[in-house]
Amino acid sequence: MVRFLLARPIAVTMVFLALMVFSLIAFTKLPISLLPPIDVPQIVVKVSYPNASPEAIEQNVLRPVREGLLTLNGLEDMESKAGSEVGTIRLQFAFGTSMELAYIEVNEKIDRLTNSLPEELDRPQVIRINTNDIPMVRIQVTPKEGIDHAEVTKLAENVLKKRIEQLQGISLVDINGKQERVITVTPNKAVLAGLGMTEQNVINAIQSGNRELPGISVKDGQYRYFLRLASRVDSPTDIEGLPVSAANGHTVPLGKVAQVQYEMGETMGYHLYGQQEGLVVTVHKQAAAKMNELMEKVRASVELFKKDYPQVDFAMTQDQSTLLNAGISNLQTSLLFGGIFAFGVLFVFMGNYRMPIIIGLSLPTSLVISFLVFYAFGISINVISLSGLALGLGMLIDNAIIVLDNITRKRQEGLPIFEACVTGVNEVMSALISSVLTTLAVFVPLVFLSGISGALFFDQAVSVAAILFVSLLVAFVLLPLLYKLFFAKQEWNSKQEDSRFFKAILKLYKGAYQKLMTHRKLSLALLFALVPLFLLVGLALPTAGLPPIDKKDAVLEVDWNEPIGVEQNRDRIKNIMASLEGQYEQAEADIGVRQFLLFDGENAVQQATVYMDFEDRESKESQMEQLEGLLTENYPMASMEIKDAPNAFDQLFNANIPYYELRWKMLESKQPVEASTMGTWLEKLPLQDWKKGPGLQEESAVIFRIDLEKLALYEVEIGALTGAVEKLFGHYPIDEIKHFNEVTPIKLQGNKNDFGQILNNNYLQGKEGQRYALSNFIQVNYENHYKYVTADKIDVYQSLELTGENPAEHELALKQWGKDRSLSVSFFGQYFKDQENVKQLMGILGVSVLLLYFILAAQFESFVQPMIVIFTLPLGIGGALLVLWLTGTSLNVMSAIGLVVMLGIMVNDAILKIDTINRLKVKYKEQEKEWSQAKVLDRALYEAGEIRLKPILMTSITTILALLPVIFSAGLGADLQRPLVYSVIGGLTIGTLTALYFVPLAYWAVVRK
């Protein structure tokens, strides 16, 4: 085939040019995003039930919803959490479940359940989680001094949101910090009492005056008109003019008995930018959109907003496109330094400038054609797929060097250039194909990991496979063609074959080889002894999900654990920001209940999240220490967590579940254990290192208990009592004014005095028109109660998070503790998921080794020789672990990827060396028939080492030097890639020596008999 293609250089050139053109067209159509569009198999159902306790939300809302959702297809787990006024149900589905259908099915079941839920409850909100739900940027909208916040809210909802959503590629614009304007009606109770009226007369007047006639029309000749009541109100002035009638027939204007005015509505949450109240607009992209291009459009829109709306300040924070830019920058760096160092290494080893030019042309060609594969498989350009391309580039250089070196060697043997190209490629073709297949055999099975990890590896596996197969096409067709074009008119000069530098290295190699082969058994034993020593180093390595990234931004999550209002929460956060003013570059806070449509976390008035961006990591750490001390000193009841600000990777990988959790349920009552009893039981828990789970956290509350006997004695209806309480505390909804898409609520203004005074100063009418104070019928108590009620798909549970080392060793004692108290005990957490992942990974690696063995057995037509390649892997892994340990790096996702890449290159070198040894054995058997088998083997081993020394060294040195700049670089991209680089450098350093010396020794040991 190679001969056929090389004989038609113009046709081959045209085919490659056509492929390049189509690939560039495909590249322009590829979506560019931060992460692959992964459907996270989770759906969250959120419930908002104002003025309801956790127990009421659990009993009346969450329990029936859970029971209705139990039959969902693919449902694996269900967790619910009821708090004050809010509740959430988190549904976990089996990975691979169609989340589009699951989302539809959940909504259908919620619709069926609506009639069985409380009437005053809004429909539960269903949120589907996707990687594209992570906002790509947050736009801060802050009103200037004197500007009405409600007007800015209208601007954000009606103008800014719609203008951003019109941009091509935007999927959703979400807003938090909205405040609405309401009309409040504050009755003058003394005047009402003097006129013989009540608050209900005022409410009736407003509802009657704001009534519409739906669908009523009249005929006037040949025309028909729809009726509209002229009494419909539009402003506080209109409401003040409404007539209020008493039972005795007296009528007065409403403005005489009540004050009507515009006010800011009661809010459950605020957003701060710095110390200023404002709004935040989060921007989400479509899966097929190009993030870097879309970000430029968003920036341009924000600049227009600044000009069009000078009464508002705008700023952009938490731009997630920096991660994508870091990935693109890393790829560009790999290409640049890969080309430079390939040129340098080839020049040092060969003293020929044409070789690096050929490789320089092959690298971008392979990269561009790979994008055609991306387009065919529907892969986007993201950080994961780009890292796969960057990994494949090292192996691409490897293939190019091997092919060019073998063609050069054939010319040295005296073959004409055409035959040298054909024979040089044909000799290494099967070995290179095997090396690519073995690399994929190590890498591709990782796609079958369950969960998000497997989904992420899919993009990386496709990108690695794409560039490797394209590199084979380039190596087998384009490289020999370019070699022929570049060297067609040049006579072969053997003096240009090797540089003085390489000859010196060759001399050193031969000396070391002779010494090792003189003591073969001892040398082999020493090499095998290194394997357990190296692997033991791995046990000392700490493990982590992602490498630690040098971040200069931080997040403070605080729960005050006090029954404070959202205004007090806001003021405390403002004080915190004021204490650090001038120390941070940017700061923002989401306080209380979040209004985001896609927010799936906890929503509580007493909680807040503060984001701060500092100048550098050092200033961040010092300020965070100061902040922690400030909070501990001034708010001892508060629970806080200070951590690095999460990026998109963290939000995707970090689980919302505890590491190791002990759960129990009451077998008889199926309700939480009373707090007083629980305290006694926890004192006898057979371990000390634990903290309370959500179901055990307590908070203070005011409990109103109704005296039913007195209500019956004084003939007061209970409905009148509950109605009076509703009107007195908070804003009682009367009606609303609708004007196109604007809705202005009309609310009865509650009394803002102490609730004790309210109960003493307000009355109910009993028998014979006698008035009685509310305090006669209501007993007030202060009590502690559970802050949350937690439940799984079966029933309510309470939990503890075990924080000590080796929590699993206490399982038997904890089960006995639960059994003694009639509790059903179980264990849950990330610990068990990690154990399952490790088992999966071990099984997948076993499959990878089997695939590797089968491919090599077919390549070498031997059942023994593949074991030589497999035995080289532990040495490479050991070398990588040793470098990770010496540099203080953890074993994480990136260092594990580096191990896979390093093994791919190591396997490549070992395969080619064994293939060369086999070919030389056949050659010497035919040429030197008088030689013994041992002499043939020794000669083949020696000459194969000399032939493969140059490509092995050039491959390893080129790869290592191309990766070195990452170690000395700074920034997010470098922090992510550094563990990968350490793994590859460590493995290749040992792996190079393995290919040079271990392979011939192992070959001699297994084949000599």
UniProtKB/TrEMBL annotation:
Identify the keywords attached in UniProt to this record, alphabetized: Membrane, Transmembrane, Transmembrane helix
This chain belongs to the protein called Efflux RND transporter permease subunit
Question: What top-level branch of life does the organism fall under?
Answer: Bacteria
Sequence intervals crossing the membrane: 7-27, 331-350, 357-377, 383-404, 436-458, 464-486, 522-541, 841-860, 867-887, 893-912, 952-974, 980-1006
SUPFAM superfamilies, per the entry: Multidrug efflux transporter AcrB pore domain, PN1, PN2, PC1 and PC2 subdomains, Multidrug efflux transporter AcrB TolC docking domain, DN and DC subdomains, Multidrug efflux transporter AcrB transmembrane domain
Kindly give the InterPro entries that the UniProt entry links to this protein. AcrB_DN_DC_subdom, Acrflvin-R
